[in-house]
Amino acid sequence: MARTIVIDPVTRIEGHAKITLHLDDDGHLVDSRFHVVEYRGFETFCEGRPFTEMAGITARICGICPVSHLLAAAKTGDKLLAVAIPPAAVKLRRLLNLAQITQSHALSFFHLSSPDFLLGWESDPARRNIFGLMAADPELARAGIRLRQFGQQILELLGGRKIHLAWAVPGGVRSPLSLEARDWILARLPEAQATIRLALELHKRQLDGPLQQEQRLFGSFPSLFMGLVTPAGLWEHLEGQLRFRASDGRIVADGLREDDYASFLAEAVEPWSYLKFPYYRPLGYPDGLYRVGPLARLNVCDRIGSPWADRELTEFRQRSGQVAISSFAYHHARLVEIVACLEAIATLVEDPQLMSGRVRSHASLNRNEAVGVSEAPRGTLFHHYRVDDDGLLTKVNLIIATGQNNLAMNRTVHQIARAYIPDPVPAGVEIPEALLNRLEAGIRCFDPCLSCSTHAAGQMPLAISLVAADGRVLAERCRG
Amino acid sequence: MSVVTLQVDGRDVAVPAGSTLLQAIRAAGLSVPTLCDLEGLEPVGACRLCLVELEGSQRLLPACASEASEGQVIRTDTAQLQGYRRMAVELFFAEGNHVCAFCVANGTCELQDVAVAVGMDHSRFPYQYPQRSVDASHPRFSLDHNRCILCTRCVRVCDQIEGAHVWDVAERGSDCRIVAGLDQPWGEVDACTSCGKCVDVCPTGALFAKEDTTAEKHPHPERAGQLRRAREQRQWIS
Fold first, then answer.
1. What's the average pLDDT block by block, 10 residues per block, for chain B (238 residues)?
2. How many CB pairs under 8 A join A and B?
3. What is the topology classification, in CATH, of domain B3-77?
4. Partners of A254 in the β-ladder
């Protein structure tokens, strides 16, 4: 029933969600909830393991962004060893993360979200996926798939495999980049740049045309934004410090260190979802709602620091505001970030330091507690470990990007539901498929790990319930 | 040197008297899976993977710990033996906590290789998920009891090659485990010379160097045999 969390034994990993819409006595919508009904328990079963295993273990959390966990775990491991990793290793890790962000963003835009934009919200759900896109625009689909392949291939060139690589380790990385790999990247860069140019032109045309309403209604609300920036305030994805910016452009907090995350972040728990609700501690729960990810990263930085990406950022801000508040702008932000990644990759692979010298520092355990951070494609990711004197984990806390967007995803769902379902809801109402799809798309703006199984497999397993004030379920639609 | 002749899977083979059935099988150009057996260490017949059929006997014999005799007719690859071997490997997986995905020995693990060799694609036995600990008290090495299959290679190499006898086997049944010293944390055992031979010969990721992360273990099981040969043949003395 709508007020009961049901754990489906089939749902072991990301991709299973439930939305409930709550009505008052008169049939008016009073609340909407996005439930995550899966439980994985990584934080608990990692306890007792050596911290050196964490990169390998946590990379298994996600098949789409294993690199983000790998890097956060390796960085936390660096701190437990209390070593400065070699400069080449820093750059190699950066290259890895840039490739990861590129491939994940390409997946989100081309495979998962563009079928909605290009084929239409009301189009046949059976064809509203990457295969439908292949049929409708084979060149675009091919370009998008090859852009993702470009990122994935760099991961393999560096780490030996595309998924669940364990190449970053406490102290650095396992192996340098080969000359052949560098040449491959250089050879494929122009094609990747051409694809993202095409995607940006296409998306801007859509934003100017058929997607104007979505920009207003898909999670458009003021909030805080959090992300890493360099000491100079530039866009950052692996090092630097954290910054909070408010919708009015004010920098609320700056120069925050990940080690102090507990002083500015806290996590609330709701009985109806396994996903925690992190919030900005000084503002309390739920007022401390903040967003992370591509939109937040573009909002918190002063500029990106490379010419093409900065031009795109300027245009992004002209379109969506100096601080973009619509969650629909996540899609555009993803494309701008791909530009930033490709420019940064081009600079890195020409850097002679990338190809030379040591790539791993060696040390034994020197600290008992550390926090590491990385910018995953979906947003800021924290790993916090406490270990005993032998290096065995006694406490693990992982704050995942999707979790940090949880409050915002709920609010987005509510905003879309309010806009698209009748008010009041007449008795015996059928929820139209188009609403189901728009609610899905609202969640998909954030590219949560839950969407790993959305369009790529055809449909997002999703259940929507319309709940009356007395708890009765008025209508239900299920998928997946 | 006297010789015994026997038949292995229809092949006639002659081996020096005193050879084991496992040596006879290999001399015949055949192989059986093994885990506890290792050249250079005394056999114990712990893993039961090398069980073979002896014509005229109801009992299955562990080839590593059975002496070859004149006129024996041995079968190494019958349907019954294949079934038992697969079952034995399934039980190894079911009774411990073997997670290849992030194990230090992934890719170089003998248990993993044996599982592939016997065609184990899943375990028919329920996983026991025992609560086992990791001993990381040694400054250079760790022992993860979750991955230990009690082959006792570490016990034997430390006793028979290094001469330190740090390791022993304690408890019984499902509580059976390897212990260091007088059941102390490994790092507190003065007898340990930190030579790393136990890590070299461990067939799984149970014993590993502390810095090794996923799939980074480089075992050297051949070293036990090299050291034994060098010592017996006085290779280091001119």
1. 94 97 97 97 96 96 97 97 97 96 96 96 94 97 98 98 98 95 97 98 98 95 96 86
2. 47
3. Ubiquitin-like (UB roll) (3.10.20)
4. none
